[in-house]
Amino acid sequence: MPLKSTARRPRVAHTLPALHRAIAELRGRNASLALVPTMGALHDGHLSLVRLAQRRAKKVVVSIFVNPAQFAPHEDLSSYPRTWKEDVAKLTAEGVDLIWNPAAAIMYPDGFATRLAPVGPAAAGLEDRIRPHFFGGVATVVCKLFTQSRPDVAIFGEKDYQQLKVVTQMSRDLDLRVKVVGAPVVRERDGLAMSSRNVYLSPEHRAAAPVLFKVLKACAARLRAGEALAGVLRDGTSEVTNAGFALDYLEARHAETLAPVAASSEGPMRLLIAARIGSTRLIDNVKV
Description:
37% of the residues lie in helices and 19% in strands. By secondary structure, the chain is an alpha/beta fold. The strands form two sheets. Strands 1-4-3-2-5-6 form a six-stranded parallel β-sheet, sandwiched between helices. Strands 7-8-9 form a three-stranded antiparallel β-sheet, with helices on one face. Strand 8 and strand 9 form a beta hairpin. It is globular and about 55 Å long.
């Protein structure tokens, strides 16, 4: 018979008083604390964030909260995958110390009236152009998570690259004293960036999905070889649309500011893509 796991189940807090008590106990003798914000439906990409958090701090808190403020009315809030039991089992196996799992009424109680309106990286004309509501919701909930749990460091995946830049800017601008750390994209064996929304892909669309990473890699290689940006992006756009995707954007941006660039000589560059296939929207990015 297989041996039962001896890992200790993380403490779970559902209310702010419970969270504050748990944080105070974890801090103990000034122990460092890392936060990994998630919306649940955890996969290996999330777990890589947890492992990085464990390398950066003595204690690790993972938040699981599907944030309604970052979903537009036509988006998938009601159908977003929720896998609580599986998530707790995965976090138990990773040795996480605390799970913060508030209800929406805890995060946004009656009378809640304050929301952040980030600009800078949040107004770069990428995700914000397609989802104008998104970064206000992200910035508001992340600011609340930071002030609730008071971490020393917070880990975010680079797959959501614009989000990483928005949160980094917010923490710096508001003097939240949280060091935001980006973690590399974790991919399936065929290159598809891991995402909770990948479960929406039909078998046919799942087979086509790795084209996005393939195109990004090819475009990055051509740019590093000195080819002109406009032609590279034009060819990449054609390949993505020919594979059956509806392209939202394929753009080259400055890796730090997300400002448009015309050539690699203008500074460190990042290629970013967002496209839909069937009912599923996928995003990805690579360093040039």
